[in-house]
Design goal:
The chain is of the alpha+beta class. It has 2 domains: 96 residues, PAS domain (Beta-Lactamase, 2-Layer Sandwich); 110 residues. It is built from 9 helices and 7 strands, in the order H-H-H-E-E-H-H-H-E-E-H-E-H-E-E-H. The chain has a 5-stranded antiparallel beta sheet. A two-stranded antiparallel sheet has the order 6-7. A hairpin with a 5-residue loop joins strand 1 and strand 2. The radius of gyration is 38 Å and the shape is rod-shaped. The two termini are 31 Å apart.
Length: 260
């Protein structure tokens, strides 16, 4: 593999290769290999026969490298229904880049981003270098980021709702205490009046019934306000307990993945 890059490096950058020192060339080769560590790479000769398969590519499709070497199209990692499209891509005379599907050794199809590059004729006439990037991980990252964004939006909605409901709830809680004190004082006065003058009517109802009913109403309003405050507190605690966002799922990369 290193020998291949030593041969092709001058063709990739003729403007700098001639001036580069051997150490610089070796460093460039090492950098190139490191960048390709996560990319599946295959090389085919002019007859389409695979002459190299990187370990990353072999792990991607599930075949050992020596099981792939010498294979000719249709290759074993091509889904049968995609053979025409992949054959056309591999036999193209110009550079091409497109999303395609590959087939793992287990029979699972998965999405890949493919780039097919022709080799210089003085290196291998008709040869091809194919770079393959497994998109499964990026799609999973997109799904996580999308879920995180929905959760974050829900948290913002819950926090906003809690804030909007909290103000009128506080208004009710404060005023019900004032009203309760006023009602207690009023009942004391009316109780004394009824003891001296007998039962009176309030809004067409006996005072004793009104007194009991209003006390129950005030108790119900206080209990309702308490339950609303408890719900607001749960919403606020829930929003703070799940601070998920897109960055937490890795979508804050300089080049976020495109989900096919």
């Amino acid at each position: 593999m290193t020998e291949y890059f030593k041969l092709t490096a001058p063709h990739l950058d003729r403007g700098t290769a001639d001036a580069a020192t051997p150490d610089a060339q070796q460093a460039s080769v090492a950098d190139t290999l490191q960048c390709l560590a996560a990319v599946g790479l295959t090389i085919a000769d002019g007859h389409g026969r695979l002459v190299y398969a990187s370990p990353a590519f072999a792990a991607m499709v599930g075949w050992a490298p020596d099981e792939l070497l010498g294979r000719t199209p249709p290759l074993p990692f091509w889904p049968p229904e995609d053979i025409p499209a992949l054959s056309a891509l591999y036999s193209a005379t110009a550079q091409d880049s497109a999303p395609r599907r590959y087939l793992r050794h287990t029979g699972e199809c998965f999405a890949v981003a493919l780039t097919v590059l022709p080799l210089p004729d003085d290196v291998c006439a008709g040869g091809r270098v194919t770079l393959a990037l497994d998109l499964t991980h990026d799609r999973h990252v997109c799904e996580l980021a999308s879920h995180a964004q929905r959760v974050a939006a829900l948290n913002r909605l819950a926090a906003g709702f809690a804030h909007e409901v909290s103000n009128p709830c506080n208004f009710i809680s404060v005023n019900i205490e004032v009203l309760e004190r006023l009602y207690t004082g009023m009942c004391a006065t009316l109780d004394t009046y009824c003891q001296e003058h007998g039962e009176v009517q309030v809004a067409g109802m006996p005072y004793a019934s009104v007194r009991a009913d209003v006390a129950k109403l005030l108790t119900g309003i206080k209990e309702g306000a308490r339950r609303i405050r408890a719900t607001i507190r749960e919403l606020q605690e829930g929003a703070h307990a799940v601070p998920m966002n897109a960055d937490a799922c890795g979508s804050n990369r300089a080049n976020p993945p495109h989900c096919p």
